[in-house]
Structure formats: C-alpha cells, structure tokens
Design a protein that fits this description.
The longest helix is centred in the N-terminal third of the chain and has 14 residues. The strands form 12 sheets. Strands 3, 7, 8, 10, 12 and 14 form a 6-stranded antiparallel beta sheet that branches. Strands 15, 17, 20, 22, 23 and 25 form a 6-stranded mixed beta sheet that branches. Strands 6-9-13-11 form a 4-stranded antiparallel beta sheet, with no helix packed on it. The chain has about 550 residues and is mainly β. The protein has 4 domains: about 80 residues, no CATH class; about 160 residues, Galactose-binding domain-like (Jelly Rolls, Sandwich); about 150 residues, Jelly Rolls, CATH 2.60.120.260; about 130 residues, no CATH class. The N terminus is likely disordered. A hairpin with a 7-residue loop joins β18 and β19.
C-alpha cells in the first residue's frame, strides 16, 4: 500500500487514478503502474496474506485476488503530470503517470497501413477531460483490407452480469469515424467480432461501422455483461481502425475508457427525434426509428454509402428532389425501415410514395405496412429518367385506426431511391358529438373550393352548404360541427388535380381523391397540363391561370353547372 514516500521520510496522499485527485493537488495513484485496482484491493490482498500466514488458507503459487469486485473495474483517462523536485541538492523534473495509461501495450494487427501509431498525446484542444488523450493516426493503403489494432492495456476483468464498456471519441477526419475501442477475452473472442453486442445507438461494436461525427466528442457505451460473455474474462483493451481505403488519413482521439457495473447501456429505441411522426402528414424516409440493425431497420451490409446518420447501415444520401433533405438510396431486396407514427385522424388515406429510379427499363417494387398489415403492396417505381428525378405513386389505404403504430417501408426489390411517404385524408372516421376538421391537402391561396358528401358509400356525391352541421364548405377547410349521429358512414371529398403520375385526366392517381371526376364532381386544378382523352362530364371547373388544359381532338369536356 502506498503509505510511505522517500523511504518513510515523507507521507503522500494516495488516490485511485486521475478521476479521484482534487483540483490542483498532488496525489500518488494506485494506477500509476498500469494496473487499475479498486480502493479496497490492498486491504483484500493483506487479509488473504494474513490467512495464509495463519494457516487458514493453503499456500499455493497463485492466490487469485480480483483487482476489483466492482462497481468500477477500469478507468483510463491517459493522464500524467509533470513535477519538479529536489534530489541531493539538485532540482529535477519528472513526468509521472497517474492513470493506467499504457501497460504491456503493443500491436495486435497491422494490415494495409502506412505508419499507424497509437500514442498518448498532450494536445489540449483534443482532450475530453484532463490534459492527455490517446491518439490514433495512420494512412490506409489497401482497398481490400486495411486494419490496425493496438493493445493499450493488459487487464484481468471477470465479466459479470450488467457490466458495461464506455468511452469518449473525437473523429478529426472522416476515416477517424472507422475507429473504436475493442476488447480481447480469455476465451479468444473479441468484442468487434460478436454481432449481438451493440452500442447505445444499436450499432455493432466493430470499427468497420462508422461511429460518431467528424469534429465532436461523443460518448459510446456497450453492455457486455450479457449473453455469451458472462463468465469470460477481459484480458486486453485495444484501440482499433478497420476500413479498406486507398486514400485519406486517420485521426481520432480517445479519452475516459471505463468498464463498470451498469444496466443503462442497452440500445435506445423509438422514433427518431423523440416524437412519433403524425398521420396525416409526410414521413421522410431518412427519419427511421432508433434501435439499429434488426430493430429499426435491416440493411444488407453495415456500411452507410450515404452521408446522413453515418454510424448506421441505412444508405441515406443528399436528395435532389424539391425540398432537398435526404433520400434512401443504394436499395436492395429485403431491406426495410421502421417508423413510429401517430394516426391522429382515423380513416382511409391517399398514400403517396415518393421515389425515383435511374435504371432504364427496370421494374422496381416496394411495400408499405402498418403494424404488419399491408397498406400498399407491389408499389411500382418505374424508370423516372434519373436517380434524382422523383415521382409520386398514389394508393388508397384501408381504414387506419387512431393511435401509435409502426410503419414499415419494405423494399421488395432494389433499384430505387425513396424520398418520403405522405398520407392525405381520404375518408374520415369520427365519433358522434365531436367536431371534425377536414383540410384539402392541395390547398392553394386564391382558389375556390366546394366540399361534397356521399351518403351511398361513394356511388355519388352532392355539394353541401354551410349550416348547423357544416362550415367552410367553399374553403380548403371543412368543419363538421358536433357531428350528428345521422351523418354516420358519410364520405366527404374535395377533388383536386395533383397530376402526380402523368398528365392524363383519366388516371385516378392524378386526383387527390384517387378517383376520376364525374358528373357530380366540382373540379379544382391548381397547376399542371392535364390532357382529356375521353368524353368528360363534370359539375363545375375551377382553373388556376397557370393551368394549360388540353382536350384531344374528337373528345369532349362538358361542364353541367
């Protein structure tokens, strides 16, 4: 025990490691020799020695004493301190370790790398705590296999239930994202090779998956005290890079590597951003749930070929569609994304699947499900002219019930980019006595509207007027006031041209209600160049000045009202 200093002529205070030293005070640390021990280690060692001397325990060549029985098993902030002292009348300066720092360190694997180095550095702009951190640098030179694993510490840490690894990392370059802390085990296993062990973002603990963003300190944790590792022993702690590349440099910093009892390192799940996405509304494809591979999504490989959410396998890239943002690209058959959604208005919807394909002559298909029930199957995404030229494919959903659900976008085939899925109310389900508000999803300032009702399941529609039950019948918003029970099973619509599939009047998907206007329909066209290729009878027509409506020779448009 460190109870004497300079052969008993002076006493010095003892601490476990850097974390236990008060500010601006000097302590000798138990961890300075490279082995982290708990505060009671020497007391347990002394007690066991006394038992051997008394004959209470048989003397053997090896008497195991755990360096720690918890709740802390290892802490390393790589700290040292420089001190000036007097020896025999001479002033000397010495830098002393106060953390385990490096202990029996050395290269484990070095393949396809130029000048890789892991070193303790004093770069104050790149430390999370204290003055020092561990820095990994190097240049990969192989497009097939470039990896560097460096053991920083020999350890002997039995794996008990609920112990966790955590560390802070700063990626200074893009390739620095492909670095991580790895563990070696007595059984010969390594943490990076075990697919069931993931960080709190749901990503496997391997440096082959980009971890963290460039230019920021981020903490990562993994619950290792579970499954096949319980009962094993950690024997080594590594800092590692693993990603094939033929250009670029690796620079990453590590700080505060900790192994301790914990039950909070389980992957975070739930909606991205923390709130379920509302329906009606638009759900951006890149905003899939948290939870990682096999929970929030499935991707056929762990590499993110895009730029958004780089630590996850879904390939989210910059989108060239109107509104920008991101799309899901590099799609493959069998991949999917899940989304936590909240249906605020029960009823049937027009589902708009916004996608593109740059594959000439290809037939690409997707499926949308809600809680496992198919809303739209075999959605065909044709060749759209280019990968960033998008088209909306409309479908009509079954009735969606109010509340929280899991929406799934499933790629039946690859060969498409997915921008978003939109939900516009088609038929509304409401309860008697409640006030319901219906909004025309293609509302445009300056246009006029006419809401209609069907009392025979959509076989015919008639205009409605403001009164005791309705208001706003000629605006983009219809309010049904204290819904009378007598309105049960009514269907309301405000049919508006959206032209999302083609310019053909006769295509139902070009209309907001998903049906071609008839003789009882009031038609609103806000934009586009619709073409009539048949004999058409409608109740009324409202055109925006920018609209170019064409009636093909030999065909007819008749306005009845």
């Amino acid at each position: 025990m460190l109870d004497e200093f300079e052969e008993g002529t002076n006493s010095i205070k003892g601490a476990i490691d850097y974390f236990d030293i008060p500010t601006d005070q000097y302590f000798e640390t138990f961890a300075k020799d490279g082995v982290w021990t708990s505060p009671d280690y020497y007391l347990r060692l002394e007690a066991k020695a006394a038992q051997v001397l008394r004959g209470d325990t048989i003397s053997t060549p090896n008497i195991p004493i755990n360096y720690s029985n918890g709740p802390m098993y290892f802490r390393n902030s790589f700290e040292s301190r420089t001190t000036t002292y007097n020896m025999n009348g001479a002033t000397k300066t010495l830098t002393l370790k106060i953390d385990p720092s490096f202990y029996n360190d050395g290269v484990v694997t070095n393949t396809g790398m130029t000048s890789p180095v892991v070193a303790i550095v004093n770069e104050t702009s790149f430390t999370k705590h204290g003055l020092y951190s561990a820095k990994l640098t190097g240049t990969p030179n192989s497009g097939s296999s470039a990896k560097y694993y460096y053991k920083t510490n020999d350890v002997i840490i039995p794996v008990k239930a609920n112990i966790a690894l955590s560390f802070w990392k700063y990626s200074a370059t893009a390739l620095g994202q492909y670095t991580s802390v790895d563990l070696q085990f007595k059984s010969g296993k390594t943490l990076h090779s075990l697919t069931e062990y993931k960080d709190a973002n749901g990503n496997q603990m391997t440096p082959t998956i980009a971890r963290g963003t460039v230019g920021a300190w981020q903490q990562f944790s993994c619950l290792i005290g579970t499954g096949q590792l319980v009962g094993d022993t950690i024997t080594g702690i590594d800092i590692a890079y693993d990603n094939p590349a033929t250009s670029g440099t690796i620079t990453a910093y590590f700080d505060d590597i900790i192994i301790q009892d914990s039950a909070v390192a389980t992957p975070t799940t739930g909606p991205y951003g923390g709130t379920a996405w509302p329906i009606p509304g638009t759900i951006e494809a890149e905003n899939y749930d948290l939870g990682g591979e096999g929970v929030a999504y499935h991707d056929n490989d762990a590499t993110n070929s895009g730029t958004f959410r780089p630590t996850e396998g879904v390939d989210a890239e910059t989108c060239g569609d109107t509104g920008g943002g991101y799309d899901i690209g590099f799609t493959n058959a069998g991949e999917y994304m899940n989304y936590t959604v909240n249906v605020t208005v029960p009823g049937t919807y027009t589902l708009g699947f916004r996608a593109s394909s740059g594959n000439v002559g290809s037939t690409n298909y997707a499926r949308v499900q809600l809680d496992g029930v198919t809303l739209a199957d075999s959605i065909l995404i044709p060749y759209t002219g280019a990968w960033q030229t998008y088209q909306t494919i409309n479908s009509i959903t079954p009735v969606l019930s109010a509340g929280t659900h899991i929406l799934k976008i499933y790629e039946i085939t690859g060969g498409m980019n997915i921008n978003y899925v939109s939900f516009s109310v088609l038929n509304w389900v409401t309860c008697p006595g409640t006030t319901t508000i219906l909004v025309a999803t293609t509302a445009t300032a300056g246009n006029t509207y006419q809401w209609q009702v069907s009392t025979n399941n959509g076989n015919s529609y008639s205009n409605i007027s403001n009164g005791a039950s309705y208001s706003g019948v000629t605006t983009d918003t219809l309010t049904i006031i204290n819904t009378p029970a007598g309105l049960s099973n009514n269907i309301y619509r405000c049919n508006v041209w959206i032209g999302s599939i083609s310019n053909a009047w006769e295509t139902a998907g070009n209309w907001s209600c998903g049906s071609i206007p008839g003789s009882t329909t009031d038609v609103l066209i806000n934009s586009g160049t619709p073409v009539i290729n048949s004999i058409v009878n409608i109740r009324s027509l409202e055109l925006d000045p920018s609209v170019q409506l064409t009636v093909t020779t030999g065909k007819q448009l008749k306005i009845l009202h």
